[in-house]
Amino acid sequence: MALDRKPAPNDLNAFWMPFTSNRQFKKAPRMLVGAKDMHYTTADGRQILDGTAGLWCCNAGHCRPKITEAVQRQVAELDYAPAFQMGHPIAFELANRLIDIAPEGMAHVFYTNSGSESVETALKLAIAYHRAKGDGARTRLIGRERGYHGVNFGGISVGGIVSNRKAFGTLLAGVDHLPHTHLPGQNDFTRGQPEHGANLADELERIVALHGAETIAAVIVEPMAGSTGVLLPPKGYLERLRAITRKHGILLIFDEVITGFGRLGSAFAAQHFGVVPDMITTAKGLTNGVIPMGAVMTTAEVHDAFMQGPEHMIELFHGYTYSGNPVAAAAGIATLDTYREEGLFERAHALAPYWEDALHALKGTRHVIDIRNMGLIGAVELEPIPGEPTKRAFSAFLKAYEKGILIRTTGDIIAMSPPLIIDKPQIDQLVGTLREVLEALD
Ligand SMILES: Cc1ncc(COP(=O)(O)O)c(C=O)c1O
């Protein structure tokens, strides 16, 4: 009997897909079976130009030989080793390599397996840091409306994307939110950082006045909000957040899960904007998406606060079975090598003006109400179909896939973040195909 009920290997029912309209997908699956450099291969043998670096993670493109070989070598040499009370050299090597390219002041690396876990780690570190310094009342966490910090309870509590929060109960207590920085009507079709909205950082003063600085552990923001539809920080905004947090002894965490590893043309957005936080969360581009891995970078001040008490005692009761996994670490080192040897961060920086011009040439295309960009990231916002939000952008996504390009949608916003190896003709193809799709769309 039980045998009869076993699904066939190609049955799509058992896999409950993440962030997917499962019923729609399973009626008309979009299956990727191969990838190389800028392209995916579909099950029906078509080449799809990757306009999203997978999920903002394959910054060096796909199946890059150096990374593939490093993973193959490492998995055959030391497949797994615990990082609790034991070590293996490659995790230390990667940590040093990360600090080499990190903003000035970042001194330590705590490994996780994803962006969500990096966020949970950073939030816990913030609260525990203040406690270690004898400031145990500082437990509040401040996020921002429309922020995306992964899907775990801490991340959705400080996050501000309503659909990611509303089904999941009361979330963490003691959380407040800054207003988002999206100002339609004031900053439309801005190239790079918008002019208006730096004053929105001053809302932090209001939150501090409401709760008392002595109760607030940290503020977490994406320096450039990606998943909510590419919202750039207004000029001067991040500087003000830094000044206010510093003034009140509040830690500032930049969630750089998307902006890390060259997306804006520097290793990290903190360097691009010239604003250095106390902690940086990363994942995705750390291993080029090849093996799951995340990392939180902290200043020496944060780390050193924990290094007290008897030396045989564990200083931080936190960590994951796969923290610093050797195969992931090997992928990380080979990824950093690839970025450096191919000058990919510099390449992103150099291509950014071409990307910007190509994207903004979509102004005037049917349904387009705003375009935003920075580095090799861009968003095209569409006028929603009245009463049917998200439907128009989703239709564009499906049509784009049929026409050979992979884009991403969030709400009625199309977001694009191609691998940093994209060339100019491929940018033209991506944007040109998107134009055709939008012009033909209801
Ligand atoms: C800013 C930010 N933080 C956290 C995450 C969560 O990362 P993961 O999906 O690896 O848990 C993401 C994912 O897109 C992100 O963009």
From TrEMBL:
Annotated PROSITE patterns: AA_TRANSFER_CLASS_3
Cofactor: pyridoxal 5'-phosphate
Keywords: Aminotransferase, Pyridoxal phosphate, Transferase
GO molecular function: adenosylmethionine-8-amino-7-oxononanoate transaminase activity; pyridoxal phosphate binding
Listed transmembrane segments: none
Top-rank lineage group of the source organism: Bacteria
Family matches, as Pfam families: Aminotran_3
GO biological process: biotin biosynthetic process
Family annotation (PANTHER family): ADENOSYLMETHIONINE-8-AMINO-7-OXONONANOATE AMINOTRANSFERASE, BETA-ALANINE--PYRUVATE AMINOTRANSFERASE
Family the UniProt entry places it in: Belongs to the class-III pyridoxal-phosphate-dependent aminotransferase family.
Official protein name in the record: Aspartate aminotransferase family protein
Source organism (scientific name): Allgaiera indica
